[in-house]
Design goal:
about 220 residues, alpha+beta, 7 helices
Length: about 220
């Protein structure tokens, strides 16, 4: 894990170009289309961008890698995790305690995906081959595009089912030298909350900006 330092100047170095890179990379590919809602799709599946639905979508990279699908109607591992996690919240009496719920998402993702090593899973996926998110969960392994996408999925589905009053986005950006990173951005009435199991951080955006070795999570409009 790369060590970086937070600070006002550093926090403005992040580059929000992952969507542009992806669209440029896929331009002209026959797998691209638009659905009835004018959402850009890959193989008929809506691509996950910032502030777009996560469940039912597909995550692709600015550079070629595996394409990760997030769809609990076709991914039994994912659906089972949502049921298990929701039951855990009920048993713990956490319904109505939003920050406690989000904190539990953080720990649940790390419990399910403790390893960061995905090389054996993705070694033959150099050209956007599809792998369901559940495959990584079942292998207990994931990088940011898997762990944090899982966190974003859980938060989104809790919101869809009125168990969390929040809007959820899977955000990604790029920092020169350090590379690209993705995380779950959860907008609550009390502010923007960041879930980043990969970098072992969860907290409000304002807290992240004060922490040494934090990523630059802020969007341009946050400043």
């Amino acid at each position: 894990m790369t060590e970086i330092s937070a600070g006002a100047e550093f926090l403005r170095l992040n580059i929000w170009n992952r969507t542009d890179l992806l669209k440029a990379r896929l331009e002209g590919r026959p797998e691209l289309s638009y659905d009835e809602k004018q959402r850009l799709c890959f193989l008929g599946i809506p691509i996950i961008f910032r502030d777009t639905p996560i469940n039912g979508g597909i995550s692709l990279g600015g550079n070629t890698r595996e394409a990760v699908t997030v769809d609990d109607s076709h991914d039994q591992v994912l659906a089972s995790c949502l049921c298990e996690f929701t039951l855990n919240l009920f048993n713990a009496g956490l319904f109505g305690h939003e920050l406690a719920i989000i904190e539990q998402i953080f720990y649940y993702v790390l419990e399910k995906m403790p390893s960061d090593n995905v090389q054996t899973i993705v070694k033959d996926c150099a050209n956007d081959e599809i792998i369901p998110l559940g495959v990584f969960i079942e292998a207990h392994s994931g990088e940011c595009r898997h762990k944090n996408l899982f966190a974003a999925y859980l938060a989104e589905q809790l919101s869809v089912n009125s168990l969390l009053d929040a809007s959820v986005s899977f955000d990604r950006n790029h920092i020169p030298i350090y590379g690209a990173h993705g995380w779950a951005r959860i907008t609550l009435r009390g502010g923007v909350y960041i879930l980043d199991p990969m970098r072992r951080f969860h907290g409000f955006l304002s807290q992240a900006e004060l922490i040494e070795n934090s990523w630059a999570y802020g969007r341009p409009e946050d400043y």
